[in-house]
Amino acid sequence: MDYRGKKLLHNPQQLLHLITPASAPLTDLITTHSRLLSQANSRAIASAAGFKGSQSRCISLQEFHTEQQFIKKLVEFFVALGGAEGLLLVQCDNGEANFNLIACCRYLVDETRRRTLEDIDDHVKPIHIIFIIQLPKIAGGCQHFVGFQGGKWQSVHIDELLESNEQLPQIEQLVDRSVSDLFQPAYPARGDVIEDMDVDLDTSILSGSQELNVESREDFDEKEIDQQKIKPTLLLKNCLQAAAARIYDESAEVDRATKRIEILLKWLPEDNSQETEFSKILATRVHKLLQQRDDKCPENQRLWLRHEALRQGHLQETGTFRKALWQKLSSIVSPMLSEVIAYCDQNHNLDLLREEKEWKTRLWLTMINEEVITPLSYDSFTSPVSGRVRERARVSSTGVGHRFSAKFPFSWIIKDTVNVLLLQVGADPSKTIISLRSVFYSSPLGQLLKPTFEDKNIKGEAAMNYLNDFLHMMYKPIVEGELQLICDAVVAAAGKLHQSLYENDDVEMDIPLIHFTYSLIQARLVNFSELVHAFPNLVQTILRKRDQLDVGEMILDVVALECCLQQLEPKPRDLGNADNRLVWCNRVQCIRPIIQVMKSLIPRPSQQIAKGDSEARFNAQLFGERSTRYLQNCRTTWIRLDVVRMFIEHTCPPGQSTHPADAKNAFLLSKALRENTDFSTVHTMTVIERFLKSCSDGMRERLIRFDTSQCEICKSPLQDPVQMPCEHICCMSCANGWFQEHNVCPICRKEVGGNFKVKISEKCRHALETYNSFRNRCKSFFMELVSVYCFGEQLPNPDLVRKFIGYVIKDENRTEDFTPFDGQGIDVTPVIRSYILQQLLVIKEREKEVYKHLEEYLHRARGLAEQREHLIEVCVLCVQCMEDVETVKLLKAKEGGENVQILMASRELERTLRTIHVHQNSLTINCLRDIAGIRAALDVLSTYLGDDFAENVKRFEALQKCLDTAKHLCSNSSRSVLQLFLLKQLVRHDPNGIEAVKERCKRKELKWIMPPQSEEQDKTPDTFIVHHENYHTVREALGKAILTSNIDDLSVVIQDIKAQPSARSCYVLLALFREITTTFSHVNKEDKIPARVLEKLNQYIAGIQYLPNEVS
To answer: What SS3 class is residue 1076?
Structure first.
């Protein structure tokens, strides 16, 4: 840089000293690429040069429209000087376009000055004239502007007229140094002379004029340059605004960026020549990031200044070389600085520097100074693909779903570190906290924090501040005050934990204890959070009785549950209309998973905890007696509310109109169950039965005057009710028959009158449908209640088992539909009864009692001929339930491998083979168990006798033995039904039908499965096979349906046949004729089609609409 040119603007007297008092006045031409001087700039320059007031003037050529105006302005200035020394600055922009104007004005200035001075006496002082011309940045220089040629005009180019706001170091200090070097604490003095790079003598400008001799460095104040050593703080402050602009923050504070800059400026020194601890640390972190950047870049970063000097395009964009340097320097430093700031300001961490807490400030600065503790690498904010630094530095928040202001320095780093250590320590809870403390305080982070938590004056405050941050990072609050309750809960649990470990009350809260305590109670805190989501006003309710939580153990979750259940107590407005009932039921339902989870937290009795199970014993100490008592009471209350919910959902379904009395029944049920919620007892179930019968009676009295359980004539459920004048009701079919011969009511014998007509009463039918629908919904409610609460974790007592057996087998020795009501039931098929019986059978503790009751019934019913059909139904029901139980056992055995399942099935067949002859002529519960076991085992066996049978024999060594046992069991002619059952299972599991099974059973090992008469049947020619392939398909499906007693598959096959309805009818009739004639032609009656299957076939044929009526 030309230091003379620089001093011209800093101190204009330097240029005047080049001219002796007797010499001619100074005439200079200054070209620049920067903006021109303002009036304020020109007055400052004139004042610095010693020109006061009217002794200086700065004019712009663009302000004059004519030559006369310009001359007049010159004359006025020269005359006003009156012979005194003066300074005239003439400026013009775009010298390339205005080169003719500039040349003309130069001539006018010389001439005007000469003529004006001639009119004044000879004792005039010189008038200095400086032209300042702005030139555009054009590659190769200007074509038209050539400067002032000849005369005494001197030309010089100054890149930057005014001193830059960016206090950039001297350019010679930047040569051969990378940007990272600028942030080193100190640098050795560089003695080599550096060529000036800021001011270039433009040869094109100086052509034809007197050159300006470039003065050496010795002509200037070298002390000033030496004192301008590189100050990292100065660079940081200059880059601070640009770095802050790159930071992206989602914080709701609109002025967060301003606060961030204020904090940083407060901790950076005001005097750029000074350094503070914060500025040193900040410069060091930026320096390390820049060093990592240098290592990543392939080019030599020490040559950045030279590269920038050669970039003409960049120079044209910025205007001056100094600006280009500053822009380059800022583009390198600002991203690093912004990343450091964003890292430090997570969770508003910078705000801690504003607090008047000496321990926080000291800890903050110590942690950010330790790179091992607060790591920040260049790779963490660069793209792994392009290697470029990201455009914005993101200020992240580690709060769970929310932002918060930290109270402990760099708490997120501590949280992550301790969580990792917690996973590494042992699983024994009694030793975990000791191990965690040992490992933590041995780590670099723990050693740094240890003095803080050993200081009695601040350790309590430090622990609570960290606990606040930790909870923000682990728990998501949704209402105000929620985190305060969580904080109290952690403190209470930590106290209980400390007392159980050390048996004293002096709790010393520290970071390891906070983490360990939270890990133990986290599941309970999750339950509390779920409750708050369901009941947002819960927090304020608990805060009002916050003192009740201080009982020496954590009871927050159970107290919250109790408050929720109190809010759920049904009120008239909750059940007044359908919408309110739906809302209330949903709120009760949402408590269910929380209750189930909290119930699992109840510790087992100490005598049930194994000696080595230290975790269970430890959790039992945390879940104290108060929590257990609270939860047991809450569960009782919730069961009552849930039962009321079931009743509402069944009897008052949404979208259907209900009578106010139906909703009122829910209050009666809640009242009836207030002291009776143990559904493992007969008493509670009796209360439910009485309540339902009362509801049924109330409904009947409200809708129908007389009993509607049955028709008084046919004693069957009412169908198409006919109401007589006396309001008695009977079936329409019964009424038609009765009133053909009588004219009186069949019930009360009152005359009906001559105008009475037998017709269906729509009012009665609607009332009857409403009544039956309500009864059915009550029965459904009763079924759900039994399935949910009678077979839960509590075993039904023996009396309740007897009552349940009574639902299946009443004391009157008859089967009864599953219903708490007298009269008709809703379970036409024994599905519900099967469920009850199956649930009873799977309870091992009650298995003997169930078998005892069933055995008593079988013994009592064996000799009663009139009970034969009923007895068969009960036996089939028992066999099916027992078979389901055995099937479940076999399926579980398969989890250990197919060979295990086959072996278990083989053992079951061997057992029944030894005992079945004992029960051959007797009907006992053991006989039914054997039948169920055989059916389950044969079903499993059939799954391995498919197309892959040969391969299965090789894979499973137990299969051949199981097959031999089954063959021996089925070989007895009296047990051919077992052979038929196995054949049915084979057909059921084979997708290719009976023909594929027959083909497979031709193998020597399986030939015994097919009955002998099947070969004779196959030899009988099928004269109908010539009709069509569809006939063959129907015949196969019909044969399979007869074997499996499943008519639904036959219906599907018929519907899939692409033929006219008449053709389908023909195929069905032909196949049925073929099957019946060939089956009934055999002597063995047991091989004929069972009567039940024939009945189903008749029903199916009758239901085919496209068959003629004569056939159906």
So the answer is: helix
Q: What's domain 12-158's superfamily in CATH?
A: P-loop containing nucleotide triphosphate hydrolases (3.40.50.300)
What are the structure tokens assigned to 38, written together? 């303002």
- Angstrom distance (rounded) from CA 1087 to CA 189: 116
Give the span between the Cα atoms of 779 and 769, in whole angstroms. 15
Q: What is the mean pLDDT of the chain?
A: 78
User: 704: which residues sit within 8 A by CB, 6+ positions away?
Assistant: 729, 764, 767, 768, 771
- Report the C-alpha gap between 5 and 214 in whole angstroms: 10
Other Cβ atoms less than 10 A from the Cβ of 750: the count is 12
Closest CA to 727 of 695, 696, 693, 763: 763
Tokens matching residue 278: 């914060």
- 129-133, 273-277, 629-633: least confidently modelled range: 273-277
Q: Shortest CA distance to 276 belongs to which of 265, 286, 289, 262? A: 265
Q: 3-state class of 792 per DSSP?
A: coil
Q: Give helix 925-942 / helix 898-915 axis angle, nearest 10°.
A: 140
User: Hey, how many other C-beta atoms are within 10 angstroms of the C-beta on 974?
Assistant: 9
Nearest-5° Cα angle at 568, 567 to 569: 95
The angle at the Cα of 35, spanning 29 to 39, to the nearest 5 degrees, equals 80
Contact (CB, 8 A) for 665 and 647:
yes
Residue owning tokens 């670099």:
444
Strand order in 56-60's β-sheet?
56-60, 86-92, 127-134, 27-32, 154-157
Total H helices, total E strands in the chain: 45, 9
> Could you give the CA distance from residue 409 to residue 364 in angstroms, rounded to a whole number?
5
In whole angstroms, what is the distance from residue 893 CA to residue 212 CA?
105
Measured distance CA(1098)–CA(928) in Å, rounded: 31
d(CA 521, CA 516): 9
- Domain boundaries in the chain? 12-158, 232-396, 414-605+614-639, 865-1009, 1025-1103
Q: Where is mean pLDDT largest: 37-41, 143-147, 645-649?
A: 645-649
Among candidate residues 1010, 1005, 980, 982, the one with its CA nearest the CA of residue 995: 1010
Write the burial class of residue 686 (CB in 10 Å: 0-12 exposed, 13-18 middle, 19+ buried).
Answer: middle
- Environment class of 251 (CB within 10 Å of its CB; exposed 0-12, middle 13-18, buried 19+): middle
CA dihedral 178→181→187→191, nearest 10 degrees, is 0
CA dist., res. 262 & res. 405, Å (int): 17
Q: How far apart are CA 797 and CA 795, in angstroms?
A: 6
Determine the Cα–Cα distance for residues 774 and 696; give it in Å rounded to an integer: 8
CB 841 within 8 A of CB 928: no
Q: Are strands 154-157 and 729-731 parallel, antiparallel or unpaired?
A: unpaired
pLDDT tens digit string along 955-1003? 898 899 999 888 888 877 566 778 888 888 888 888 877 778 888 888 8
Using DSSP bridges, classify how beta strands 86-92 and 56-60 pair: parallel, antiparallel or unpaired. parallel
d(CA 668, CA 53): 104
Parallel, antiparallel or unpaired: strands 729-731 and 721-723: antiparallel
What DSSP element (H or E) covers 1099?
A: helix 1091-1103
789 within 8 A of 595, measured Cβ to Cβ: no
Strand partners, 382: 389
pTM (2 decimals)? 0.66
> How many angstroms separate the CA atoms of 131 and 630, rounded?
95
Percentage of the chain with pLDDT > 70?
Answer: 78
Alpha helices in 1001-1060 (DSSP H): 1013-1019, 1029-1044, 1048-1056
Cα separation, 447 vs 534, in Å, equals: 44
CA separation for the pair 1098, 837 (Å, rounded): 32
Q: How confident is the model at residue 728 (pLDDT cuts 50, 70, 90)?
A: confident
Q: Is the CB of residue 494 less than 8 Å from the CB of residue 553?
A: no
Query: DSSP secondary-structure letter at 1087?
Result: G
